[in-house]
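SAMPLE LOG
Freezer: B-3
Tube label: C17
Construct: single chain, 60 aa
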Amino acid sequence: MAYKPRWIYWKQTFRSKFQAGCLKAKLEENWHNGYEIGPFVEIRKLKTNKYVVRYTYDEA
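STRUCTURE (predicted):
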C-alpha cells in the first residue's frame, strides 16, 4: 500500500511566490540542524492567484 503524506497548510496566503519562498526557506532551515528528518515543503498556487505553503514530514 502506498504511503500518502499528511499535508500541513500554513495559515496565511501570500500575494507573491517570493514571499512564499521566504517562508519555505525558513521552514526548511528550522530542521537543518535538528535531529528529525526535514519536512517536504511545497508552494502551491491557488485559483485566486495567491500562494500557499504546505509541508509534511516522514512519520514512519
